[in-house]
Write a structure and sequence with these properties.
The chain has helices spanning 36-42, 48-55, 87-93, 118-131, 164-174, 197-223, 236-246, 248-251, 260-273, and strands spanning 4-10, 15-21, 24-31, 63-64, 80-84, 99-101, 135-140, 143-149, 155-162, 228-232, 254-256. With 274 residues, it is α/β, with parallel strands linked by helices. It is globular. Substrate binds at residues 113, 117-120, 197.
Length: 274
Amino acid sequence: MGKIWLALEIGNSRLHWALFIGKKLYSAWNTHYLAESVIQQLAKCQTLDHLLLAISPPHQKISRENTSSSPPSPLSPPPLLVASVVPSQTAIWQTYPNTRVITLDQVSLKGVYPTLGIDRALALWGAGKTWGFPMLVIDAGTALTFTAADANQCLVGGAILPGLGLQFATLGQQTGQLPLVEMQNFPSLPSRFALNTTEAIQSGVVYTILAGIKDFIEAWWQLFPNGRIAIKGGDRTLLLNYLQTLYPEIAARLIVEQNLIFWGMREIVMEHKE
């Protein structure tokens, strides 16, 4: 059995966790940000069960991947690999013992630029190493991002725009007359030509985001007709459902996988073992 280690992606809104045994993903879950005092207490946990209890949400059962057995408890806090886009959070997690912060130079993508987000680089690397290059990754999170690499594992580039929730929030907070539309899983696509303000906001945000995704995907396939596309992020299921309604031929070719960043982190761990 392989060594137990933890992976932590510090996102703009939440913490995303994974527990690995060697290269096998045992479980994955999300939490809110934790206070520095809680992080300092983690090092004092005597068993893995106590550690997982401390960093998992109350009343939420951690989802286990491909296994029904419990992992053995290590004698000391397991190594923690951190990928972060929030510098203030990165700093406080370095109080946990045996922490390794992954930086852009550790990702073997070619042609990256210095300010490329580590989350985008890791997700692209994980997707490409799992399903092959050329690869385009769409991350439907707080921000909606597109990040791509060619068959030589060289960065093609990408784009960043506000995600669904951020667009709704911005309209509600930065205008005097428009209401705040809460981000929610609308049961179906909103009416395109709405007859009230709330639905007009829903229509404007949803249909323009879907049109943008379609346009980027079609441009990607013009460059790489056999290029693969993976989608992740908290809004992935909602957007996929909408795409299946409007553009089923596009939706059918998408790889849906939330754990792409963890696949990228695993690749780095495996590379450094060899």
